[in-house]
Amino acid sequence: MSKLFPDKTKKRRRDSFSATDLQAFRENLPVYPFRQQLVNCIQKDDKVVLVVAETGSGKSTQIPAYLLETSHRIAVTQPRRVAAVTLAHRVSSEHGVTVGQRIGYRVRFDDCTTADTQLSYVTAGMLLREAMVDPTLNKYSVVFLDEAHERSLQTDILLGVVVRARRARAESARPLKVVVMSATLHVETFQDFFGGADAVHTLRIPGRTFPVQLLYAGEPTDDYIEAALSTIVEIHENEPAGDVLVFLPGQEEIEDLAALLRQYLQEEEAEQWTGDRVENLQEGKASHHHNPVISGVMICLLYAALPPDVQLAAFAEKPEGCSRKIVIATNIAEASVTLPGIRYVVDTGKHKCRHVLPTGMESLSVLAVSQAQAIQRTGRAGRIQDGVCFRLYTEEAFEQLPANSLPEILRVNLAQVVLQLKGMGIKDPSTFDFVTPPDRASLVRAAKLLYALNALNDQMELTDYGKKLAKLPLDPVFGHLLLQSAEYSCVSEMLSAVAVLSAENLFYRPSGEGTVAAKAVAAHRRFASHEGDLPTYLNVYKAWQKEAVYVPPSSGGRKAQKKRLQQQAQQAGQSHAKLLHGDWCQRNFVSGRALARAFHVRQQLQALCARPANRNGLGMDVTLSAGKDRETFLKCVASGLFLQAASRIKTEREVESNSRGRSGTLDSTRGRYRTKLGNENVSIHPTSTLFSRHPSPACVVYTEMVTTKKTYIRGVTQIREEWLQEVAPNFYSK
User: Fold this and answer.
1) What separation in angstroms does the CA of 189 have from each of 151, 193, 232, 357, 372?
2) Considering its fold, how many domains does the chain have in total?
């Protein structure tokens, strides 16, 4: 998988884990004594089965696999792609088969199944897309809805879909069996949803946990990253062996803490070394994600945007020379996955979630967790032995937390939900079987957005354009951005831009102000576009295509890359030799994993766009290119993102100067904007290409709004304000 896990280590681990050991391990799981009861309930009972079992009990890996001996075709939904992938690998390994054959997974832009796959681990979003083509889910005889307590948007909608499918197939020869699984399920809520206690068979499987000592902070702290670092150092220096799991809100905080922790460990290790080794450590030349073991510690990161191969490092055994693993994760590690070896949990009490602002704009904000989430996090420390949970907030603060998290359907923009329901033939989304019905204002707001995108007509019916939009596995706004490229003859460029947006985190920015950080800034400068982030992303992707050789891992990996590189060098007479993918990315401080993901996303989007409409495609000419006509591309960006536009707020000096007929100068408050929709005051994010632009553009569009201590816009691109009236005349009146 990486340099951390050499083949000999993997071979030794397989050899030592015999079939007898595996069987004993599975029989020792808390779920095993319920095996026959579970199979009987699912196969013979016509009721919905609710399984309440702690993470680590074996519910996600064992219960679906108990049905492999039957003829059932099974789908198991997960709220996150990392859970679907790791569970499929785990169950395939337990049953001695190759993942993708009898047991596989399907996540967005990655289908590892065949026509013969019997057990599929899928994200809820992927099964929803299947339901748009086949609302009764005839492909499956059993659907498991796992981690239902998280109440994710897609899982909640899927619950309504399976209720309808189950009702439609009730009298058929293949009735649909439904199993809802969770660690902390509110049974009454789901009993009411499925028709009452008599319509549901509830099984409670006791967990296998050890006592966990709770330690609270003595006083509130504003800097939870600094508090987390101090706590980790204290554990490392004073506590017995055991791995550490740290909960942080999002990627940026995780990267910051990881950098601080590496610096601390490198300084500790440097005391034992001299010469070049120390110099290398100080220059920060250690790998960004695949860190070597530093001072006996391996740091693993776990968040949704990471590629699967990097995420899997958190689940692997510790390599030789490693005495402790520190996993820094988002709430992805609360319940969806089980991390082995965790004895200490450091809980900052924060998570990042999307919610709709009073103005109607959607924002990504850092908020406090609920008591249920805090309890779930604590439980991660007691899976293998007695553990300790360090809560970086006071006991009084815990008592003031809400008991449970608000379901996602009550706090996010529902445009994609309404689009999906309309795509499934549901004329009035308010009549849909919601577990928790959203308020009508949210549905109206979503319908207005889709109407603005021309996806709905005056009668609130799905238009032909809306049907195209529903086929794309993208947020409606990004889907609109891609579809608009056909009108502006820049499909090729927009496929690349949208693919990079789907990959996220393109640039690697080393922390600090040393030589490495300066080199990164210089490397990124050659890609930077005066017009903003989307043209910059396009520059990176085009340069990578032109200057690097990338061969997908399934095609032979690095050896295949070297072979192709040699062939191209011979053909070009050595005059235009390309670099290997990894070397190019390292030289340019670009995430190789992000580019590889963008490449695969682009391939799948291109295939969908090029496929004829009669084969469930979009019938677009994917070769259309604007060439060097950058204005056409920017006008397309304005057309696609017209709902996410903002104008620069003029400073008092500018207003005063303009009133006197003179051009003013910008002062230190430059870069403040007001959104066209919602009149929200925002600032350009520091990572944006336009952050240090002087003067700041008068009008921009953006791809995302993020709220921390202030509200930022990301993915910012300059446009001309008058374009908005041209590209969206029905929305922007003169």
Assistant:
1) 11, 6, 39, 27, 16
2) 4
Q: Which of 393, 408, 423 is at the close of a domain?
A: 408
Contact 639, 487 (CB under 8 A): yes
- Overall average pLDDT of the 210-226 stretch: 92
Asked whether the bond before 175 is cis by omega within 30 degrees of 0, the reply is: no
Final residue belonging to a domain, choices 629, 651, 685: 629
The DSSP symbol for 143 reads E
Distance of alpha carbon 648 from alpha carbon 251, whole angstroms: 28
Q: For residue 421, is it within any domain? A: no
Question: Which structure tokens are listed for 705?
Answer: 């709004």
Mode of pairing for the β-strands spanning 548-549 and 579-580: parallel
Same domain, 613 and 687: no
Verify that 573 and 617 share a domain, yes or no.
yes
Single out the residue of 157, 84, 705, 60 nearest to residue 408, CA to CA. Answer: 157
N- to C-terminal Cα separation, the chain: 57
Contact present, 168 and 354 (Cβ < 8 Å): no
Stronger pLDDT, 671 or 199, i.e. the higher one: 199
Neighbour tally for 46: CB within 10 Å? 10
Alpha helices of 276-399 — where are they, by DSSP H?
A: 276-282, 308-311, 371-379, 395-399
3-state SS of 446-463 is HHHHHHHCCCECCCCCEC
The domain in which residue 515 lies consists of 472-629
Are residues 263 and 309 both part of a single domain? yes
Residue 51 DSSP symbol: E
Cα 368 to Cα 371: distance, rounded to the nearest angstrom: 10
Q: Indicate if 276 and 394 belong to the same structural domain.
A: yes
Mean pLDDT over 355-368 rounds to 75
Pair of tokens at residue 581: 């993918």
**CATH number assigned to the domain comprising residue 265:** 3.40.50.300
Reading across the β-sheet that carries 48-53, which strands appear in turn?
Answer: 110-112, 103-107, 119-123, 74-78, 142-145, 177-182, 48-53, 200-205
pLDDT tens for 128-141 read 989 988 999 999 99
Q: Is residue 98 domain-shared with residue 117, that is, in the same domain?
A: yes
Expressed in percent and rounded to 5, the helix, strand and coil fractions of the chain are 45, 15, 40
- Residue 469 vs residue 57, higher pLDDT: 469
Asked if residue 458 is part of any domain, the answer here is no
